[in-house]
Amino acid sequence: MELFGIVIVLSVILVPSNVLIAKGQKGSDSPSSPCNYPAIYNFGDSNSDTGGTSVALFPRVAPYGETYFHRPAGRATDGRLIIDFIADHLGLPFLSPYLDSLGSNFRHGANFATGGAMIHRPTASWFQTGSSPFPLEIQVEQYIQFKERTAYFYAQGCEKSRIPRPEEFSKALHTFDIGQNDLASGFGSNEALRARLPHIISLYAEQLRGMYEVGARVFWIHNIGPLGCLPLSVIKVENPPPPGYLDEHGCIKSRNDIVKEFNKHLKETVVQLRAELSEAAITFVDIYSVKYRLISNAKKEGFEEPFKICCGIHGTGIDVGCGNTTIINGAQVYGGSCAKPSAVISWDGVHFTDRANTWIATHILDGSFSDPPIPITRACHRHSQI
Prior knowledge:
Blueprint: E1 40-44, H1 52-56, H2 82-89, E2 109-111, H3 124-128, H4 136-155, E3 173-177, H5 180-184, H6 190-213, E4 218-222, H7 231-234, H8 253-276, E5 281-285, H9 287-296, E6 313-315, E7 318-320, E8 325-328, E9 331-334, H10 354-364, E10 370-371
Parallel strand pairs: 1-2, 1-3, 3-4, 4-5
Antiparallel strand pairs: 5-10, 6-7, 8-9
Helix pairs in contact: 2-10, 4-6, 6-8, 9-10
């Protein structure tokens, strides 16, 4: 079972979860004008998986999807993910999973993300814990094949309303939200994990270079959120916790410290890649700060206490996953959802609710948490041009 397959102004009016974020304007190619993205190609884990895992491995079941889609829609939440809000903001449709053979439309992009995916290629033991067989390396290879096959079928005169135009790949937005499973799998030995960080980051950079070599030019890269604040971990901390184990907001400090170190290395690598990849426009998005701000100000932002889990039953000796049924003391127990998901930050103890994702997306799309500090509608322009 996947545990950490999750997956970035300053003062913004909260948009209700049933109201779409305003769409970006389309304009010219001058550095001061909005970009005209013809498509989005996304890579990542369950933070941005719009159904790849559901069609390739195990489908999401009710009550997943209940708030927005009113049915399971392949997403690890009750509604939309950040990538859905990005697509809508740019005036593009939600992304079809690359692995989905039914009802998919790839005219405006594709989603290669799968729940449990890692940057590092997982070992056999990691597969047993729910890691995806589609790490970033495979996702990038799928993208390359997708691009090559698109060119072939387009030249053959095949149905063109559901496939991209080959000349538009270099103009597309390429989004990344991956890495948390690499860290979550190693939290048992923090020092060993810390020693692996440079290698994990180097693998990430290698795949970004590979994307650039086949024509990708616009990159929007999320760092990793505060894994030490995931309710499914926090609720299992002994009471009272050891001195200094939790930070002032109740998050596991040692886990967040490693995440911060990973994010620091990732940002330094992005800066290096900007200098190396002369035609690339690379935006680094500080998802960590946005999510931590929401968690540390939950009640002020209209949510209940930040470590409440909406779907599933978790407590001392009890773990019933969202949508699962099990037998406890001879009785059948169902892990259903809470009465008001819009008041809760965490959907299932790992992933965020539709309303929380709305809040997060609202806070990153204008560029207030980006480096360089530009909105996503202008992220196609190189930093030196602005």
